[in-house]
Amino acid sequence: MTGSDVPPSFRLAYVPGVIPAKWVRIWQERMPDVPLTLSGVPAAEAAAGVREGRADAVFGRLPLDRAELSVIPLYVETTVVVVPKDHLVAAVDEVAVADLADELLLHPLDDTLPWERPPGRPAVERPASTGDAVELVAAGVGLLVVPQSLARLHHRKDLTYRPVTDAPTSQVGLCWREDRTTDLMETFIGIVRGRTVNSSRGRPTPPREKAKEKPKARRPAAGDPRGAGSAGRSGGRSGGGSGGAGGRNPRRGAGGAKPAKRRKPRR
Q: Concatenated DSSP letters for 66-106?
């Protein structure tokens, strides 16, 4: 089988916490003959996977290295701190970064949340993965600051999480290589943007041309020689019939009176 004989397919990658189910379902409805394959990738490898051709597109977390990539930002995730259920933070509805000043924060290597250590606070630990970090939180080693979707993904009965109001946030976006914007890619972009099936892949439909109107007849200006013929004709009609000059009836006399009737001679 040659390369041209290979049936088309679309490879979609996504980082942990992102749920692409609704977009996949719409793809299957609109493109039943083109299979879509899904693969999970670590957040730190999302851009590289698309750039190196291991996927046609990826749902990744921003910011990321956009070199050679096109990106459509989609939604911003809430940042939360994961804590044991008996921790003081669990007693409040939300916290600020200052409330975590004395805590050891865990920042997994597979996450892209831009978290910087404020002066005077303990160093940020870098476990290998979010799963490893969750285990350390449960063991009482430290706290974990992550997007809310990851806290839900790694939910445990002995842990909870609270929003961090002023922490850095991350945004989920659709990424693909600029030089590989194929027809299938355009179709998926349309699905993600919520376009209908009849929207021509987002290209604006040219407006319909208006029917050409017939030019209106222009009334000749006064003194225009082109109007003399029509004026004369109309004058003849309005002058009282189809007679000659001055609109006189040829059966009438010069004064307009009827001519006398001729009498038959008596025998």
A: -TTEEEEEEEEEPEEEEEETTSGGGGSS-B-GGGGTTSPEE
- Among residues of the chain, what percentage have pLDDT more than 90? 53
**Backbone phi and psi for residue 109, each to the nearest 5 degrees, phi listed first:** -70, -25
Domains of the chain, first to last: 7-76+171-202 (3.40.190.10), 79-168 (3.40.190.10)
β-bridge pairing 57-62 and 170-177: antiparallel
Q: Let me know: does 79 contact 170? Beta carbons within 8 Å.
A: yes
What is the per-residue pLDDT for 149?
A: 94
DSSP reduced 3-state for 235: helix
Tell me the CB-side half-sphere exposure of residue 244, using CA atoms within 13 A: 6
What's the Cα-to-Cα distance from 206 to each of 200, 209, 211, rounded to whole Å?
A: 11, 9, 15
